[in-house]
Amino acid sequence: MNILVGDVLTMKKPHPCGSGRWEVLRIGADFKLRCLGCGHEVMGARSKFEKQIKSLVREGETLSPEELKK
C-alpha cells in the first residue's frame, strides 16, 4: 500500500475514545499513528495496521484499500 506521512486513515475498529480516524506520523516497517479524537499516539507493525484500514484521506480525496493497491 502506498501510505504517506500526513495521510488520515479510517480504521475498521474505533479507538476507545470513539474516533476511528488516525493521522500517519511515521512510516517504514512500523507505523506511528495519532488518534484525531484524543491525540493518543501508537506505534505498531505495518502489516497489522494495513489489515485494519477501511479508507484513506489524502488531500481531500478518499481512497479505499483496493484503490491504494493499484
Give the arrangement of secondary structure elements.
Blueprint: E1 8-11, E2 21-26, E3 30-35, E4 41-45, H1 46-52, E5 53-58, E6 61-63, H2 65-69
Antiparallel strand pairs: 1-2, 1-5, 2-3, 3-4, 5-6
Question: What is this structure, in a nutshell?
Answer:
By secondary structure, the chain is an alpha+beta fold. It has two helices and six strands.
Give the rounded overall mean pLDDT: 88
What structural class do you assign from the helix and strand content?
alpha+beta
The rounded Rg comes to 11 Å
Total tally of structural domains = 1
Describe this structure in words.
The chain has 70 residues and is an alpha+beta fold. The chain has one domain (8-60). Helix content is 17%, strand content 43%. It has two helices and six strands, in the order ββββαββα. It has a six-stranded antiparallel β-sheet with strand order 4-3-2-1-5-6. The radius of gyration is 11 Å and the shape is globular. The relative contact order is 0.26.
